[in-house]
Design brief:
With 369 residues, the chain is an alpha+beta fold. It has helices at 7-12, 29-32, 62-74, 183-186, 200-214, 239-246, 332-341, 346-358; strands at residues 24-28, 33-35, 41-50, 90-98, 107-114, 125-132, 138-145, 151-154, 159-162, 167-176, 190-195, 219-221, 226-230, 250-254, 258-262, 267-271, 275-276, 280-283, 286-296, 308-317, 330-331, 362-363, 365-368. The protein folds into 3 domains: 4-23 and 257-368, no CATH class; 26-37 and 184-254, Gyrase A, domain 2, CATH 3.30.1360; 41-176, no CATH class. The strands form 7 sheets. It has a 6-stranded antiparallel beta barrel with strand order 3-4-5-10-7-6. A 4-stranded antiparallel beta sheet has the order 2-11-13-12.
Length: 369
């Protein structure tokens, strides 16, 4: 999302903004679609981290003391809450994502986050923790030393801290205990492709590409996001081979005309063949005019009508006070190029793009984050 944020830097170094992207690009099937149901499974668990150098939870975190008591009782030690007073233990929430097609014995990374008032998990070790899915079944257990990706040294009032040390990761810390069964394995007759970016034209192109390669009736677009695939007889019961053969097929992906803006960071990203209706822009003491002239390109030795060529120009005037309107059209990239030559900041660009959309000149979807 940093395309337009860097436009000012490009202009400063004399780089020319490339022309607008074509409305359709050639892509591979595997790059724009995935199989429905083939997704990760989120897991969560509650556990404790031990081995902290006095940076664990205080007695204010009652649940930590209760957890320590329960752990000790599971080892045959009888203690009460008043006997548990240690700063070397912290209660944590453990999260992980179970990969699709995972099998028993595989491993996965886990994220450990402090739940109480622990100052840092640096140097701690996660005690065996059960990880459950939304169906309340245990799919994995996690354990191991924590890597916080930073450090914390000193005391609370005087010290140095790099990154967030109250959360960390245990690489390959989860051992999977259950196999994942996906839709592609349970439905031998076929499956559904799901587009990463829903679009009716791209879905139709995907179905046409599959039918052209594997035969008619193989695929049908059900909506802007889903393409149903009926496995041909030669692939019946073998969807993996079909996916392997179909993954490198090419098709045309339609580029959506869309502008995404983040006002908090001052960044703008625009994609697709974005057009502007006839307009004139004034921002502060800056005036930008968009104009299009149609010229007949005469050709000798022919009686055919001469083709008409449209020439679009974008001009910027920093001192102009009169707002001039000339009928025409241009791409948003042309306007951005003119703005950056005048040193307009990304936040000014956001204000201008919002005004263009409000005036009905910007012919694209606008998303503000």
């Amino acid at each position: 999302m940093a395309v337009l944020r860097t436009l000012a830097l490009l202009a400063a170094f004399g780089l020319v903004l490339p022309a607008a992207a074509p409305a359709e690009t050639t892509v591979h099937v595997k790059d724009i679609a995935h199989v429905a149901g083939v997704t990760g499974n989120q897991l969560v668990g509650y556990g404790i981290v031990v081995g902290l150098a006095g940076t664990g939870d205080t007695t204010s975190a009652v649940f930590t003391s209760q957890t320590i008591q329960n752990v000790l009782q599971s080892f045959g030690l009888s203690v009460n809450t008043n006997d548990v007073r240690t700063r070397d233990v912290a209660a944590v929430i453990v999260t992980a994502t179970l990969p699709p097609f995972a099998h028993s014995g595989d491993s996965a990374d886990v994220t450990v986050s402090a739940m109480g008032d622990s100052t840092t998990l640096q140097g701690g070790t996660l005690v065996m923790t059960e990880l459950k899915a939304a169906n309340n079944l245990v799919y994995a257990t996690a354990q191991g030393p924590i890597s916080v990706g930073g450090f914390s040294a000193g005391f609370s009032d005087v010290g140095v801290t790099k990154n967030y040390t109250s959360a960390g990761r245990v690489p390959n810390g989860a051992v999977i205990a259950r196999d994942m069964i996906t839709n592609i394995q349970s439905d031998p007759g076929g499956f559904s492709y799901v587009l990463t970016t829903p679009d009716f034209k791209t879905a139709a192109n995907l179905a046409s590409s599959l039918n052209g390669h594997f035969g008619g009736g193989t695929a049908a677009a059900q909506d802007a996001e889903t393409v149903r695939v009926n496995l041909p007889s030669t692939y019946r019961g073998n969807p993996v081979q079909f996916l392997a053969d179909a993954s490198d097929l090419t098709l045309g992906q339609d580029q959506l005309a869309k502008v995404v803006m983040n006002e908090r960071t001052g960044t703008i990203v625009f994609g697709g063949d974005i057009k502007l209706a006839p307009c004139a822009i004034a921002h502060g003491n800056l005036t930008i005019t968009i104009a299009t002239t149609n010229e007949a390109n005469t050709q000798p030795f022919t009686n055919r009508p001469p083709p008409v060529v449209s020439n679009t120009t974008v001009s910027a005037n920093e001192k102009g006070k009169q707002l001039t309107f000339i009928a025409g059209a241009a791409t948003l990239s042309s306007v951005v190029r003119a703005l950056n030559t005048m040193g307009v900041s990304p936040r000014d660009l956001i204000a201008i793009v919002q005004a263009l959309r409000g005036a009905g000149s910007l012919q694209a979807d606008l998303e503000i984050q």
